[in-house]
Amino acid sequence: xIDDTVVTKALDDLKAVRSGEDDLYVEIDTPGGDADxxxxxxxxxxxxxxxxxxxxxxxGKNTVYSAGVTVLAAFPKACRFLCPQAVLLIHERRLEKxxxxxxxxxxxxxxxxxxxxxxxxxxxxxxxxxxxxxQGSRTSLEELRDHALTNCYLMxxxxxxxxxxxxxxx
Length: 170
Description:
about 170 residues
């Protein structure tokens, strides 16, 4: 599960790789977790790949659900691999929130505007991650977004057919 502890450990591991000369190798097997933590890891991995002059590779082991897909998408398609039994879960971020409007109309409108801005920002960030995942694949952003609406589970072989990963590692 991607949480603060996992993010801290991964960043410490990345710091060790940065101080050496080796390429970056990441194994991921997660039922999901904190979307913002996954975005942080994705950003750090992208920065490493961009500025280190070294390669980075990621392999999805068994379950690469939700936030794990965000991390997977941080790597270029040519550097993404899955084990044969791996399953990806691609879905839109979930939100459950009650919106209470009570007070003057202008105050209520401001509350609605703030919540709309939050939703629009979340959608933009989600689309950035989805765009990373489909870059270089045979799948369009719109096709992936359509799949994501229905909690899309993809077996490794199907992810390969769609061009979301470079290969299956057996």
